[in-house]
Write a structure and sequence with these properties.
Pfam families: RHS_repeat (PF05593). By secondary structure, this protein is an all-beta fold. 0% of the residues lie in helices and 49% in strands.
Length: 72
Amino acid sequence: DATGSRKTMTWSRYGQLLTVTDCSGYVTRYDHDRFGQMTAAHREEGLSQYRAYDSRGQLIAVKDMQGHETRY
């Protein structure tokens, strides 16, 4: 941006997003299952979001950073 700050991202060799560092320097780390689906996002502030999938790989639940769970 105009202040010289930058956002950076890192990727695994399989093309999965691993980390995002925002312009303020905060890092969000991403976890994936063996099928490559994102299972969790962990923010530097200690907040996490989780995702669950069924045996066919379909999203069945999300737990947000406040701990609220939504099932599909």
